[in-house]
Design a protein that fits this description.
single chain, alpha/beta, 7-stranded mixed sheet
Length: about 190
């Protein structure tokens, strides 16, 4: 796995041994950053179900000001931090080791809101009720929530505070992109 754009383009990330992960492919990561590209410079980013942390590190390489990665695997958290040190971006990355629902509760008690939230839960994830309706409250006005999921899976209806998603398909993977409506108060489609 390597960084595909920005300051650290081409840098190879260390593999994370011992963790069962399904990393976002380079194709999907490149598509993700093409979609969110205009927002990433100086953005605050939250990556849920971070796994390898490749999307977090990619965001930092492309100019995000601060990134929080949430992951429950000990090995994955250690690997994310090791790769951040190797790239020299540790000061702009916070790793929260734990379950996503608990991390969301913690983050909601803090004032910071995110320009972009990227969630890549395990395929066939069945626990949306623990976080789905709370995610919009973590977004800054006009921010984006991007959910990676299996193209064959159907996401539950999006929270009312988000616009209708734009869907992008890449083989067996789909990105659902929702935009926060906090600034406008009306339902719209993500761009």
């Amino acid at each position: 796995m390597r960084i595909i754009g920005g300051k650290h383009r081409g840098r190879v990330l260390k593999r994370i041994a011992g963790a069962e992960l399904r990393p976002t492919t380079s194709l999907v990561r490149e598509a993700l950053f093409a979609i969110i590209g205009p927002l990433i410079k100086d953005a605050t980013v939250l990556e849920l179900f971070a796994g390898t942390g490749a999307s977090s590190l990619e965001a930092l390489s492309r100019g995000a000001s601060q990134v929080i990665a949430v992951e429950r695997s000990d090995q994955a958290c250690a690997g994310i931090l090791a790769n951040a040190r190797m790239l020299g971006v540790s000061a702009r990355l916070q790793v929260i080791h734990g379950e996503v629902a608990r991390a969301i509760t913690r983050l909601l008690s803090e004032p910071a809101r995110f320009t972009v939230i990227f969630a890549d839960p395990p395929y066939a994830f069945a626990h949306w009720e623990s976080c789905w309706d709370r995610l919009p409250d973590l977004l800054a006005p006009g921010g984006l929530l991007v959910v990676e999921h299996a193209a064959a899976d159907v996401l539950p209806p999006g929270p009312a505070k988000l616009g209708e998603p734009r869907l992008y398909c890449y083989g067996k993977t789909r990105l659902a992109v929702f935009r926060s409506l906090a600034a406008t108060g009306k339902r719209a489609t993500a761009t």
